[in-house]
């Protein structure tokens, strides 16, 4: 999504302030937090006992990690769902004609009687938007709909795998 937003809002010009903030802000702070944490053998919250004024930096780092983990775990849940669906004899996102496909689905075969292909969508895009996310059933951003039990199981599986790999600590995951 980031490259698309850069292209939509001005192209590569955005990369100049992004690169400057990355080089002069984000990387030094990340390096400093890693060095302080390793030297003191403390986590991101308790490492700031050396300067209590900056204790909020540790809480902020933990909260950002928490929010980002929810976002990425949902994407990994989608991946698990795609892997599960790919074990079928024919991949469901290869052709049109499924119950979730619309009349605009176009699998790319040559059809000389239909020359208007500008409003067509691919079967893969319709699989993701109409079967996985069910966007066509929503009226807007305020209408999220009910959770899909298939995706809920995939996300719970992802969180279970993460918990099992991290519950004894970072040392055991290696």
UniProtKB/TrEMBL annotation:
Q: Name one GO molecular function term.
A: symporter activity
Coiled-coil stretches: none
The UniProt entry lists the main location of this chain as membrane
Keyword Disulfide bond in annotation = yes
> Cystine bridges: which residues?
96-105
GO annotation, biological process:
amino acid transport; sodium ion transmembrane transport
Question: Membrane topology type, per the record?
Answer: Multi-pass membrane protein
A Pfam family of this chain:
SNF
- Membrane spanning residue stretches: 12-36, 57-84, 149-167
Output the Gene Ontology cellular-component terms.
Answer: plasma membrane
Give the location in the cell: Membrane
- Record's family? Belongs to the sodium:neurotransmitter symporter (SNF) (TC 2.A.22) family.
Q: What is this protein called?
A: High-affinity octopamine transporter protein 2
Q: Which organism is it from?
A: Limulus polyphemus (Atlantic horseshoe crab)
């Amino acid at each position: 999504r980031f490259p698309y937003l850069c292209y939509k809002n001005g192209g590569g010009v955005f990369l100049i302030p992004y690169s400057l903030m990355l080089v002069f802000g984000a990387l030094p702070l990340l390096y400093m937090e890693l060095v302080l944490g390793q030297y003191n053998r403390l986590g991101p919250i308790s490492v700031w006992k050396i300067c209590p004024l900056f204790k909020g930096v540790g809480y902020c780092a933990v909260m950002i990690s928490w929010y980002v983990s929810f976002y990425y775990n949902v994407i990994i849940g989608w991946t698990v769902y795609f892997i599960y669906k790919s074990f079928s004899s024919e991949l469901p996102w290869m052709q049109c004609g499924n119950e979730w496909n619309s009349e605009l689905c176009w699998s790319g075969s040559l059809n000389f009687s239909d020359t208007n292909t500008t409003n067509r969508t691919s079967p893969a895009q319709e699989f993701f938007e109409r079967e996985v996310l069910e966007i066509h059933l929503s009226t807007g951003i305020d209408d999220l709909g009910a959770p899909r039990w298939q995706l809920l199981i995939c996300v719970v599986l992802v969180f279970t795998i993460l918990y099992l790999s991290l519950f004894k600590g970072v040392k055991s995951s290696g």
